[in-house]
Design goal:
Layout (H helix, E strand, L loop, with lengths): L8 H18 L11 E6 L9 H8 L2 H4 L2 E6 L7 H6 L5 E4 L3 H6 L4 E6 L6 E6 L14 E3 L7 H9 L8 E3 L6 H5 L5 E4 L3 H7 L4 E4 L12 E5 H6 L1 H20 L1 H12 L6 H15 L11 H13 L21 H9 L1 H47 L3 E5 L5 E4 L1 H6 L19 H15 L4 E8 L5 E12 L5 E10 L1 H15 L11 E6 L6 E4 L3 H5 L20 H17 L2 E9 L6 E12 L5 E10 L1 H9 L1 H7 L4 H16 L3 E8 L3 E9 L2 E2 L4 E3 L4 H7 L3 E3 L3 H4 L4 H6 L3 E8 L5 E9 L9 H38 L3 E6 L4 E4 L3 H4 L4 H4 L10 H17 L3 E9 L5 E12 L5 E10 L1 H22 L4 E6 L5 E4 L1 H7 L3 H4 L4 H4 L6 H14 L6 E6 L5 E11 L7 E8 L1 H15 L9 H18 L2 E9 L2 H8 L1 H16 L7 E6 L2 E9 L2 H15 ...
Parallel strand pairs: 1-2, 1-3, 6-7, 43-44, 46-47, 47-48, 48-49, 49-50, 50-51, 51-52
Antiparallel strand pairs: 3-10, 4-10, 5-8, 5-9, 11-12, 11-15, 13-14, 14-15, 16-17, 16-20, 18-19, 19-20, 21-22, 21-27, 22-23, 22-24, 25-26, 26-27, 28-29, 28-32, 30-31, 31-32, 33-34, 33-37, 35-36, 36-37, 38-40, 38-43, 39-40, 41-42, 45-46, 45-52
Helix pairs in contact: 1-15, 2-10, 11-12, 21-22, 22-23, 23-27, 38-39, 42-43, 43-44, 44-46
């Protein structure tokens, strides 16, 4: 052995590690006060379930006992709550919920240690088919809801959604989800880890509506204790908490193990495994282990929960929660003293340890990266699950608007069954055309880095319309680049419908404008402020009639304004309208006849032209004199209301009323339907309350509404016992007065209330009446202003939207008014036409004719319409106008002139002319088309056109066809009714006949396939003409039939192929299911077909397959189907089976049929078959299951010796499931790199030195036991994963050999096992040589091992590859020699260097003469052929001695070395240990 060098890194590391261990051994351990197990009790909040799996794990895995605790877990019995168990001393710890906060505010000494569930498991559950997508959809529905604290989160959710319990039909909770399944309720208060499973099992799709979607986010399961436990046993508490959280980590990482434990020990509810698996998944989503630390508690969340409980009046306002959250104190205790005493030794150890850590840092980082990658994948899965629970549509789009992802709610919203229907398609295809441009602009905006929103209309895949509101944000990658658009979309169809309904209701109230208690006006915005219009109400304000103000005819309104107010008012307007369109001001006027001063309020908006300049002012004047006078008398109220309107006025007024009356509450409300009062403003205890209403019946407000002002200074609750709100609020005093409109009708109520006898100030009634009057005026003003604004907007929209020229002429036909559209239509400004006649703008020859027509109309004083006339544009081109007009008369009944509209129809006339020309060209075109048959038909479907191609196609000459009925010529009788109805629908309803493929009649009676399209000409006339364009599809149909046959039938055997079989099998399964029948699948595989195909050639293989198809077809019954499944595999489908014996008989007949020799031209071949059988419904419900299970049974028949049949059994099903599990895990293992190479040295029996090693693949999962190669290698062989595994092994072995070579370990070879499939499916020679080149290795650095079976089945390509590798210098060994089809001819034919004797001979050879003789023979043969012999499986001294005695060259086995990781072998190579001592 070479001497140890002091500078060797491994030596240094080993030395430091040993020194650190010695130092730590010297240090005395910290002492704990108790070494025995302390008994404690944990009280659960419910029966045993996965919800408490973490505590079971902590108990069963010894986490509690390691912490010095003997924990007893009690399930809930219903006699007492977990909090009561804590406070009464029944338990030291308990699992409770967020209601622990309520108990804490009540002074109970409870402490929250950890929140296991980060979100509340309580939620509303509805059927997906109910159409309820949000909580607002609960209105009028039956809702199950618990009382009090139980469903506090759900009650808060209803409040956040704007619902009261009166909006719903509340049912007591049944705790049984079957209430929802049976239809006893519409909405169920569910526990998400439990009831959703029962719904899922019935096949009903459910939808959860979670409180956190509405801003209510409670903690779920909370681990709790008492203050006494925390103060008296702090170390025990810390140990219990740490062990519990560790138990939860274990439970979440090993759910299947915990489910097994619950089923075996804790299943008091008798839950099924499937139920517990459902609980495990949903519990994990509530715990969120990848997003937050298990048990994490946020103080802000507890404050949020406190605020919600306060809102629900479960705790009083201002409740304190100090001390609720457990905070672990730093403990000095024995650990601190221990650290002080031994700090010097510990410091030295830590320094040495850090040196070692730095050397191992790189390896640790690789493991950490793999771990974080797995966690990230799990986090992404959790996030996708949360998004799928979201009731709104969540989607992502690329830059072109194509859909990338969408959650289940979004797919349901657009009527999509699966994401593949819409993924990759532009989402704008669903957006209605008027909104597409806006949607595209939104996408562009988001991809520039800005978020945005849009309200738009869309059409689902099934054609239904819906209104959607979307909010979009950019999604940035780690480098800051925007890669996609993320949006959340809500269905707001119901909201839009409600708004439209409200709009229609508002329109029905237009008549209120006539009763507005104010003067509506329009005036010029200039120095004169002359009125263009003012309503008659101005007379009540000024004593002047409205006409006196029009254009300042008799007086200017400015002359009435108080001199002190003119300049401030005009200055205000100028400043206000500089950057606003609305205004409001108050000023005084002086009435001329009595010099009385009146206060007016002026509110309006400015109308601007296209250039932005103000054209006029539209507003309303209201008399506010009484309000001003009241201001002087009630200064305290006026001060709070000056300058206020709208909601601010109402809010300030109720607050001022409270102060003036020294009351506790005040309200202004409007009466709806004479039954309900909806508060406009309400204050209670100094806070404004929104969205509050109450019924009139039984309340003092009913008396106010029916009579007049009422006052009840005290005992009002006793006088109105039917009003529960009075008693609930503890009201003593009440004062109220009605709000009336201009017709003295009561429209609302003003009231104040007090919990003490009401302090009634002087003039209280006047104050209430003044406020009621002001409130009534403000209510009417708001309604009037809203109505006026809507009218003005409609009028403006109407004027701006018309494109016609509106005019008025006098009795001499001279224009007296022209609308601005004259500029667009004729090029003249309106003022250029005034005083001229329409005939002045027509060509002379047209003007005389139109003038004479118009003169006749004037003489008859009649209206006229659609008078077409030619005009000249100002720029000289011609314009055709369609003119309509109506006469109007003066006071004496004489004709005053005409008013009318001119419409520009120039483009329409040009289009008509173009259409006529197009029709002419169309007829010329169709005459020239030789292969396109064109026919024309009139309204009665009589032939009016028949070109030569139609004669060639249908056999009728033009003379025979013209005048005949279409249905008498080429329409089959079965199409008569459809043809007539389609033609009628086109003529009467404008529904075109769609183009498509038809079968029409030839003259001789045979059917012709044609593609027919249709055109309707002169549709708007009395003589519409339908033209049909037909193209012969006979050749295309024959080609399609041939393509369909190619796609569904095997081209060699002409049997149905796999595609057609699976389609037919799917249909037969449905029939069997419908009629309760059985169906059998026989999966037939030819034994050793490859041998015949390879040895005799593919031509003979094809002949054999044809004969096999013929023999199988001869065994068919009437309804059976045989198909070629692929290669040498056939499938026989047998429907309508009564007994299994029928299937067995057919299988036996097939096997007997194959016993007869196959005649392949001049050669004969014997072929047997293995048959696997699966039955419907016993062995599968789907096509895939039946074929897969039959395939598995076929493989079992082959394993049993071939030439037999095998029915599928449950054992095979278990093996198949295990196979699929192994395959799935193996694929994941290839991705996560948990497959590792171990190396077993091969020892030279003469020198005892290691000469080479065999690379052995090991599967070491991070979270489970190692999986044997004997289990996963066969799976890899069957699934062809062996190809990927082989490449990984070759790459890893070469990489390791290069690393060792770089460290000076050169005279050493790694042998790699090669599968036969790697030769068949890969250019193995290229793979190996390129890998060697990549790592700078020579062929002598690597060897390969093959089994005899690989060589037996090898073709010339495999032989060629092996020879090329051998010639390059690579050693080739035959593994497990003697167990296969050993043949000296193969040893001679193939380039083999080493023979490896299988361990089966070595095991008993020391005392079994037969095995010894076989070994001696193998050694002799090997040495005679110049090969070395390696003996495998040497495990003891006797086998070792025998191997030397008979002349073996090399040996490997546990006697020398076990398989080991690369690091261990590297150390062994550098510092060898005698082989027989290493194990």
């Amino acid at each position: 052995m070479p001497p140890l060098h002091p500078s060797t890194p491994n030596t240094a590391l080993s030395f430091l590690s040993r020194l650190l261990i010695i130092l730590l051994c010297w240090l005395p351990p910290p002492s704990f006060a108790d070494n025995h197990l302390v008994p404690v009790t944990l009280q659960l909040k419910w029966k045993h379930a996965f919800q408490f799996a973490g505590y079971y794990a902590a108990l069963e895995k010894g986490f509690y006992s390691n912490a010095g605790l003997e924990v007893r877990i009690l399930e809930h019995q219903g006699d007492y709550s977990p909090i009561e168990a804590l406070l009464e001393g029944r338990a030291e710890y308990a699992v409770t919920a967020a209601d622990i906060l309520i108990h804490r505010t009540q002074g109970k000494p409870v402490v929250a240690l950890a929140s296991i569930f980060q979100h509340s498991p309580y939620a509303f559950l509805v059927k997906a088919e109910s159409g309820i997508n949000s909580v607002t959809g609960f209105v009028g529905q039956r809702v199950m809801l618990g009382s009090g604290i139980q469903d506090a989160a759900l009650r808060a959710t209803l409040r956040r959604a704007g619902l009261s319990l009166d909006d719903l039909t509340i049912l007591p909770t049944s705790f049984d989800v079957r209430s929802l399944i049976r239809g006893d309720t519409d909405v169920f208060n569910a526990y998400v880890t439990d009831q959703g499973f029962a719904l899922q099992e019935t096949g009903i799709e459910g939808r959860y509506l979670l409180p956190k979607q509405y801003g209510i986010d409670f903690y779920g399961d909370v681990l709790a204790t008492t203050e006494a436990e925390a103060e008296q046993h702090p170390q025990r508490l810390r140990n219990f908490l740490k062990a519990s959280l560790r138990g939860w980590e274990y439970a979440l990482n090993h759910p299947d193990e915990l489910i097994d434990l619950i089923l075996a020990k804790y299943n008091t509810q008798e839950l099924s495994r499937k139920h517990l698996e459902y609980e495990a998944r949903t519990s994990r989503e509530l715990i969120q282990p990848l997003l937050v630390r298990i048990g994490h508690m946020n103080p802000a969340r507890w404050e949020h929960i406190r605020d919600v409980f306060t809102e629900l009046e479960l705790i009083p306002p201002g409740s304190r929660i100090a001390g609720l959250i457990y905070a672990e104190d730093d403990q000095a205790s024995s650990w601190a003293r221990w650290l002080v005493e031994y700090w010097n030794l510990l410091l030295a150890g830590l320094v040495l340890f850090l040196v070692a850590v730095l050397l191992l840092f790189n390896l640790q980082m690789r493991r950490l990266i793999r771990q974080r990658t797995a966690e990230l994948a799990q986090s992404e899965h959790s996030l996708r699950t949360l998004i799928d629970m979201e009731p709104a549509c969540v989607k992502t789009l690329d830059r072109k608007g194509r859909l990338l992802t969408m959650n289940r709610a979004g797919l349901a919203m657009i009527d999509a069954d699966r994401i593949e229907q819409v993924c990759g398609h532009p989402i704008t295809e669903l957006v209605d055309k008027p909104y597409r441009k806006q949607f595209i602009e939104l996408i562009k905006q988001v991809f520039t880095g800005h978020s945005g929103s849009l309200l738009f209309r869309a059409t689902g895949l099934k054609g239904h319309k819906l209104w959607l509101e979307t909010h979009a944000v950019p999604f940035r990658e780690a480098n800051g680049e925007i890669s996609r658009l993320l949006s959340v979309t809500q269905d707001v169809t119901q909201r839009i419908k409600a708004e439209n309904t409200a709009l229609q209701q508002q329109r029905s109230n237009q008549s209120m404008l006539a009763n507005i208690p104010g003067a509506i006006y329009r005036c010029m915005y200039d120095h004169s402020r002359s009125m263009l219009f003012i309503s008659d109400y101005i007379k009540q304000l000024t004593e002047y009639p409205a006409d006196d103000f029009i254009n300042n005819a008799a007086i200017s309104f400015l002359e009435l304004i108080h001199p002190a107010d003119i300049e401030p008012s005009l200055d205000y307007l100028d400043k206000r309208l500089w950057d606003h369109d609305d205004y409001y001001l108050e000023f005084r006027i002086i009435r001329q006849h009595d010099r009385a001063i009146r206060w007016l309020a002026d509110r309006g908006t400015a109308s601007r032209g296209q250039d932005g300049k103000i054209l006029c002012l539209d507003g309303a004047l209201f008399d506010i004199t009484e309000r001003k006078q009241t201001d002087d008398a009630l200064h305290i109220l006026v001060e709070s209301m000056v300058g206020l309107t709208g909601q601010a006025f109402f809010d300030k007024t109720v607050s001022a009323l409270c102060r003036w009356f020294n009351a506790d509450g005040a309200s202004i409300g409007v009466i709806e339907d004479d039954e309900w009062v909806q508060a406009i403003a309400l204050t209670l205890d100094g806070e404004l309350i929104s969205d509050y209403g109450y019924p009139l019946a039984g309340s003092p407000c009913r008396e106010v509404a029916d009579t007049t002002t009422c006052l009840y200074p005290q005992d009002v609750a006793q006088q109105f016992p039917e009003d529960p709100e009075l008693e609930k609020l503890g009201v003593q005093g009440y004062a109220g007065t009605p709000i009336r409109d201009q017709h003295h009708k009561v429209i609302g109520i003003v009231w104040v209330i007090s919990r003490q006898p009401l302090n009634v100030p002087t003039h209280w009634e006047d104050a209430l009446n003044i406020i009621a009057a002001k409130a009534g005026a403000e209510i009417l003003r708001r309604r009037t202003e809203r109505s006026l604004k809507e009218n003005m907007e409609r009028y403006r929209a109407l004027v701006e939207s018309t494109q016609d020229f509106v005019w008025e002429t006098d009795s001499q036909s001279r224009y007296t008014y022209c609308s601005p559209q004259t500029k667009t239509i004729l090029g003249y400004k309106p003022e250029e036409l005034i005083g001229k006649t329409p005939f002045d703008f027509m060509p002379p020859e047209v003007a005389d004719q139109v003038s004479s027509q118009f003169t006749a109309i004037i003489q008859q004083r009649r209206p006229f319409s659609s008078l077409e006339n030619l005009n000249l544009h100002k720029q000289g081109h011609q314009v055709i106008l369609d003119t309509s007009g109506m006469p109007f008369f003066d006071a004496n009944g004489e004709l005053a002139g005409y008013r009318g509209i001119d419409r520009d129809i120039t483009q329409r006339k040009q289009a008509e002319s173009y259409l006529r020309e197009s029709e002419r060209r169309f007829r010329e075109l169709i005459e020239s088309l030789p292969n396109v048959a064109v026919q024309g038909y009139d309204r009665e479907l009589r032939v009016i056109y028949w070109n030569a191609a139609s004669s060639r196609l249908y056999g009728y000459t033009e003379e025979e066809a013209l005048g005949a009925q279409l249905q008498d010529l080429i329409i089959p009788e079965s199409m008569y009714d459809c043809l007539v109805e389609a033609h009628h629908a086109w003529l009467e309803r404008g529904q075109p006949i769609p183009p498509g493929e038809l079968e029409l009649l030839h003259k001789d009676g045979h059917l012709l396939p044609v593609f027919s399209s249709h055109v309707l000409l002169n549709q708007d006339t009395d003589n519409p003409e339908m033209f049909c364009i037909d193209v012969d599809q006979s050749e295309q149909k024959r080609a399609l039939d041939k393509l369909e046959h190619l796609a569904t039938y095997d081209q060699l055997t002409h049997l149905p192929n796999r595609y057609l079989l699976e389609s037919e099998l799917s249909n037969r399964i449905k029939e069997a299911e419908r009629f309760g029948q059985k169906l059998a699948i026989l999966f037939i595989d030819l034994d050793n077909f490859k041998v015949i195909n390879d040895s005799m050639g593919h031509e003979y293989g094809d002949i054999l397959l044809l004969q096999v198809a013929k023999r199988l077809s001869s065994q068919l019954r009437k309804y059976d189907t045989v198909a070629r499944f692929g290669g040498d595999e056939f499938v026989l489908m047998m429907p309508m089976i009564q007994e299994n014996s029928e299937v067995a008989a057919v299988a036996k007949k097939i096997i007997r049929e194959f016993a007869t020799v196959f005649d392949l031209k001049e050669q004969e071949a014997f072929v047997t078959t293995s048959i696997g059988i699966s039955l419907f419904p016993d062995d599968g419900q789907t096509t895939g299951e039946l074929l897969q299970n039959a395939d598995a049974a076929m493989y079992r028949a082959k394993d049993a010796g071939r030439n037999r049949y095998q029915f599928f059994t449950q054992t095979m099903n278990d093996e198949l499931r295990r196979y699929q599990q192994i395959e799935t895990q193996l694929r994941r293992a290839l991705e996560t790199e948990v497959l590792q190479l171990y190396y077993q040295p091969q020892v030279d029996l003469r020198s005892g030195k290691i000469k080479s090693c065999e690379a052995l693949l090991r599967w070491l999962p991070e979270d489970g036991e190692p999986i044997s190669p004997a289990e996963f290698i066969p799976v890899a062989e069957r699934s062809e994963l062996i190809i990927r595994i082989g490449e990984c092994v070759i790459n890893a072995a070469c990489r390791q050999r290069a690393a060792w070579k770089a460290r000076g370990l050169r005279d050493f070879q790694i042998d790699i096992n090669i599968s036969g499939r790697q030769f068949l499916f890969h250019d193995l020679y290229q793979v190996i040589t390129k890998t060697l080149q990549r790592y700078g290795l020579s062929p002598t650095d690597i060897g390969i091992e093959l089994t005899e079976n690989v060589l037996i089945k090898a073709d010339e390509k495999i032989l060629s590859d092996l020879k090329r590798l051998h010639q390059a210098g690579m050693q080739i060994a035959i593994d497990d020699f003697g167990t296969g089809y050993s043949s000296l001819s193969y040893l001679k034919r193939f380039p083999v260097d080493n023979l490896k004797i299988d361990r089966a001979f070595v095991r008993d050879a020391p005392h079994d003469s037969d095995d010894r003789s076989i070994m001696e023979a193998i050694v002799a043969v090997g040495h005679r052929l110049g090969m070395k012999v390696v003996v495998e499986g040497v495990e003891n001294q006797a086998q070792h001695a025998l191997s030397i005695e008979i002349g073996c060259d090399l040996a490997q086995g546990y006697y020398f070395y076990r398989p080991m990781p690369a690091e261990q072998l590297e150390a062994l190579l550098e510092f060898p240990v005698p082989a027989h001592k290493s194990h």
